[in-house]
Every structure is written in structure tokens, then in C-alpha cells.
């Protein structure tokens, strides 16, 4: 007996209209990100005039001079994630999936021949490399204050902690400030650690996470 072709239920008219609207939404949703990028580039977000209008929390993060535990602007994140480099990576994803290389390069490396946060990126495009680092610093700075306020109990009883992928130690220093009894190690790659001035607050360890992790009661991975 011949195998039967799988049958597909034909959507109703109402489903078709919904489906078409959904398709347009998915196809165009990148414009939301690009509109946000335009607003940041044009400096279109400003402190509100009192009593006339107010900022929603998202806009609050994009206004110059807003302080939450220090300078809190997240503009660099918008500029980094909507940058030409990021968008070109997404356009190359279909080709990347078809590649048969082991181990596979990251999609970013595959398209640009450079790795984010490494020397190769700085050589490829110093301006963009600077924006990517600013975005990382903005992310690092904002998150930890909230974690310390909202998840205070997480650190209860902890005497020592190693922050893997700890970068320049922003997170570990904030933890130490809130819990001065916690002995903090910051682990990152040598090229990152060698640029961080020693501060006498946390112990900076230059190493590869996959080779050594300084012993501590707790290990933190925050990305
Ligand atoms: C996304 S960033 C760090 C994010 C930071 N913890 C935060 O919360 O914002 C990733 C960091 O991991 C570091 N890194 C990448 N591979 C590593 C490895 N194999 N060993 C140690 N650090 C590594 C990078 O140098 C970079 O500083």
C-alpha cells in the first residue's frame, strides 16, 4: 500500500488573518530595536519636565546623568546590540548552521574573524570594541546593586566567594562593600586582569576558568 502524504489542516479565515498579522510582526520586529537605536543616537531621550510627562523605567535607563549606585545609563547596550557587527552576525546565522567545522567558531567569529572582548576585535574596529566594553561595564554595574538589594539572603553565611568571569571586579567590589566580611576573588583571563589596578579589596586572579578556579565557599557566574 502506498504511504499516505501527511495531511495538514487548512487554517480557518480567522486563523489566516491572525497568522498573517503575526508574520508581519515577526518580520518587522527588528525595527523596534533600530528605532531605539535612533532615539539613543539622536539624544531624543531627555529628563522630563516636571509634572508634564514622566519616564517609564526603560527610558529612565537611557537618560544621561541618571544615577543608580553610580552612573546607570544603559545606552551602550543599545548601541552594542544594534551595531552593524551584531546585525551582520544574525544575517550570517543560516550559513553558520550549515557549517561542518569542529569545533565550530562562534557565529561572531565566523562572520568577522574576530572575537568579542579580545584583542582581535580591538584591531578590527577600535570604536566598536570601545562600545562593546562600555556595554559590558554598563551591564555589570547595574545588575549587582539590584541583586544585593533584592536577593540579600543569597549571601547569608558566605565567607568567601570567587566571581568567575569577574572582569574588572565591579561586581566583587560591590559585594565586598555590602558584605565586608566576604573574602572575594575575581577570576578572569590574564589580558583582562593585567589591566586592572590592584585595589586591596578583592584578590584578582588571572587564569582560564576551564583550567583553575581559586577555591572559595561560593562560586559566582554572572553573565
Ligand atoms: C560577559 S563578560 C562578564 C560579565 C560580568 N561578570 C558581568 O556580570 O557583567 C565575560 C567575561 O568573561 C571573561 N572570560 C571569557 N572566557 C573566560 C575564561 N575561559 N576564563 C575566565 N574568564 C573568561 C571575559 O574576559 C569577560 O571579562
From TrEMBL:
Residue ranges of every copy of the O-methyltransferase C-terminal domain listed in the record: 93-222
Domain of life: Eukaryota
Pfam families the UniProt entry points to: Methyltransf_2
Keywords: Methyltransferase, S-adenosyl-L-methionine, Transferase
Molecular function terms, GO-annotated: O-methyltransferase activity; S-adenosylmethionine-dependent methyltransferase activity
Gene3D superfamilies (UniProt xref): Vaccinia Virus protein VP39
GO biological process, one term: methylation
Protein name: O-methyltransferase C-terminal domain-containing protein
Lineage, highest ranks first: Eukaryota, Viridiplantae, Streptophyta, Embryophyta, Tracheophyta
Amino acid at each position: 500500500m502506498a504511504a499516505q502524504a501527511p495531511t495538514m489542516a487548512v487554517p480557518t479565515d480567522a486563523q489566516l488573518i491572525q497568522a498573517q498579522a503575526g508574520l508581519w510582526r515577526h518580520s518587522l520586529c527588528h525595527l523596534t530595536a533600530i528605532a531605539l537605536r535612533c532615539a539613543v543616537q539622536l539624544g531624543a531621550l531627555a529628563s522630563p519636565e516636571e509634572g508634564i510627562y514622566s519616564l517609564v523605567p526603560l527610558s529612565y535607563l537611557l537618560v544621561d546623568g541618571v544615577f543608580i549606585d553610580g552612573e546607570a545609563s544603559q545606552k551602550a547596550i543599545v548601541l552594542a546590540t544594534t551595531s552593524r557587527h551584531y546585525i551582520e552576525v544574525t544575517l550570517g546565522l543560516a550559513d553558520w548552521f550549515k557549517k561542518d567545522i569542529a569545533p565550530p567558531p562562534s557565529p561572531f567569529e565566523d562572520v568577522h574573524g574576530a572575537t568579542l572582548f579580545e584583542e582581535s576585535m580591538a584591531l578590527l574596529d577600535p570604536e566598536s570594541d570601545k562600545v562593546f566594553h562600555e556595554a559590558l561595564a554598563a551591564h555589570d554595574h547595574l545588575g549587582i546593586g539590584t541583586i544585593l538589594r533584592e536577593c540579600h539572603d543569597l549571601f547569608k553565611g558566605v565567607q568567601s566567594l570567587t566571581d568567575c568571569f569577574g572582569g574588572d571586579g565591579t561586581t566583587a567590589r560591590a559585594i565586598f562593600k555590602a558584605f565586608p566580611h566576604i573574602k572575594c576573588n575575581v577570576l578572569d583571563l590574564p589580558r583582562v586582569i593585567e589591566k586592572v589596578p590592584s585595589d586591596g579589596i578583592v584578590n584578582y586572579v588571572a587564569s582560564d576558568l576551564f583550567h583553575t578556579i581559586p577555591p572559595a565557599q561560593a562560586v559566582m557566574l554572572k553573565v
